[in-house]
Each structure stands twice: as structure tokens, then as C-alpha cells.
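[Q] Does anyone have a clean C-alpha cell version of this?
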Amino acid sequence: LGVRAKKISEGGEFITMKWIRTELPMTKSLSFLIFYRQRHDGSWLKIYQTESITERSQDWKQFDMKLIEMSYGDWSKPIKVELWIEENSSNLQMVGETMFTLNSILKEKQRDFLISEYQDKILLEMVQVYAKPDFLDYIREGLQLSTIVAVDFSAAGGNISPHSKSIGQGPHQETIHRLCEILLSYDRDRKIPMYGFGGRPHFPGLNSTDTLHCFPLSGDMTRPEATGLDGAIKTYMEAIPYVESNGPTLLSPLLEEACKLSQMLKFSEANYYNVLLVLLHNPIEDIQETIDILVDAANVPLSVIIVGIGNADFSKMEVLDGDEGLVSSTGKKPERKVSQFVIYNRYKSIHTMLAESVLSEIPEQVVQYKQPAGLQTQLPCLLYTSPSPRDRQKSRMPSSA
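[A] Here you go.
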């Protein structure tokens, strides 16, 4: 089992398009376009809707989408475009439609489209097909995933620490084994920093009467790493007798440290990307603070996987999965998704599904971080391009010389 990032035909190819209005009537109504792809059974699937525009001189914004979503691998399949007019929020009217294929716009250079019986026209101002590097491209260029493991030792709400002292038993060992086994395939030095939080460490070289929310399970502040999968599980097991479970259960201090480590990677080791694996057995008490940090974490090379272990009520933690979109206390939204939350018991009977579900989002998160950061691979980028009608017109103009 590995991180799934299989490259399929058109999987890493994107199309960018810009449409303008050429002969539409002057109107104060809002207008927008809706694009549909034809399914195999002849029905239509909506794939994109432009923003609404009002002024005749205004063009619809350029947009990008995956080529596979538009063509589904068949460049001869028709794509339908509808023109809609919006008088107000309760009065929408479809005033016309047209069709094209990828072959017609990319190979035959079709640009003008009659879209209604009133001779209204829209123009494809620009179209390009280009390739974006995917996860496997970055791996081939030397990207390494650096795994960090953090284990909850809190006893909040009266829950006794569930950490099993038997090697090979217990959900903590199982989760570390299943996930780290795969992640280590992308890490040459196989070093795993191991941390605990929500407990009082009583190691020979690290003893505290206060609850700490980020401490090395090795008991050595200068050497938090374990080596390899066996080393990670051994470090966790050997730490259990030295940690007194306590509370509260706070995640934000640990995330802050992970972000600091990742920030240093950003400016020193561009070919490393951190994956933080957090094993919880109590719901955290600082959800909003945690969300605030996760929103900012979108700007550093970091993904966060949170696994809820045990029978606690994790319902309020579901928001950390990020599928619905995180919002910070100041209203800020993340530039990309960085976190995933899963409940271990949902995968208890099929452990392999845990790894597949949890790790499936990592490749896309890596790509989303890399590309806005300007860290592109050396791929040939532009595959198809067609000059706009305006550009072709300029090329035909006689020289003033």
C-alpha cells in the first residue's frame, strides 16, 4: 500500500479559457455562462459557471479547470454553453445556448459562437492546455516527506490514558504502524520526531510537575527523533511509564511548534514537506485556536492528520477535517486544505482502509502548496495554445516601417 498518486491520461493537464461578449444587447441585467459536459447516456453534467457581469465592456474572468473534467478523455464530445440573464435573484432566464468540442476550439481554431436566435454572439478570447506537475513529479525531483508523530497523554474529562504497554497491541501502535510505514517510503533518512502532549513527563533528563503540551517522547529535548518504524513504536512504548496523564487537552501549542519547524523548512530545505500525525483520545479544548493555526499553516510545507482514538465524543472535532472550509477567528480562510480528521473506530475492522483514507489527500495538499509557492518542476508546461482573435488581428496589421 502506498500514497495513491497514479498518473492517468489528462490527469495533470488543465485548460484555461477566457470568454467575452461581442454582440449582446445593452442591458442592466446580470449575465453569466454555464458549461456542461455530455455524459455517455446523452444527459448533461454541469461542470462550470462563470461569475455574473453587467457592463457590456466587461469580459468574463479567465478560468482554469482540469482537462479531464471538461472532456473526460474524449475531445470529440460536445460541450454545451448556456447564456443566462439574471434580472434579480428570483428571475433567471436562459436566453440561448451553443456547443463546441475540444477538437473544434484547439485544432480547428473555432472562436465565434452564435448563442441565441437574436444573433447574440460570444467569443472565445483565449484557450490554452497546459500541464501542472503532480505529486509523483515532485517525488521524482527529490521531494521527501518528513513525518512527525504526536501522542495525546491527557486525562481530560476523567478518561484514563488508554496507552497499551504491549508491543503490537493497541490502536496507537496500529495507527503509527499503518501510516508511518507508508510515509517513510518517501523519507530517505527515516527519522521521525516523536512528541507527547497533555501530560507530565518524568524522564531522567526531563521532569516536570506542570502539564506540558509539547515534549519529546525520547526524554531528550535535543534528540526527539526515532529511527524507522520499529524505532518509532519502541520510543512510544518506552515513554509510556515516564508520562503522567493529566490535562487539559490542548493541540494549538503543538501545532505552533510544528508550524515553526515547517517555516524553517520553507526557507532552508525546499525539498522537504512535513506530515504531522496526531493521535488523540480526548476532544481538544482549544478548537478555535487550533483552527486559527491551521488556517495560517496553509503557507508552510505542512499537512496535519488527526486521528481520534477510543470512545470519546469527537463530534465537535469533525470541523477540523476542513472539507467544509475552515474560518479563523478573524474571518480568514486558508489558501489550501492542510488538515484531516478521522475516527479510528470507523476503520477498526479494516485497518488497511484507515491508511488509504487518511493518506489519500496528502498528494493534492503537497501540490497545492508547491505551486502557489512558485516551486514548479521542470516539466514542459504549455501543450496547446491558440492566439486570441485580437492577437491574430494585430499580426495581420501592416508594419509602419
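[Q] Thanks! Anything notable?
[A] Confidence is low (pLDDT under 50) at residues 4-10, 374-380, 391-401.
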